[in-house]
Amino acid sequence: MNPELISIHEVAKSVKEAMETRHSIREYESKPIPEEVLKRIFETALRSPSWKNSQPWKVHIVSGNKRDELASALTEAAKVSTPIPETNWPESYPSDAKKRMFDLGMKIYGVAGIDRKDKEARDQFMLRNFQFFGAPTAVFITSKFDLNFFVGIDFGCFLQSILLLAREEGLGTCPQAALGAFPQVVRNALQLPNEEKVIMGLSIGYPKASSELNRYHTPRESASDLIRFY
Question: Which of 123, 171, 195, 198 is the most exposed place for a label (fewest CB within 10 A)?
Answer without folding.
Answer: 195
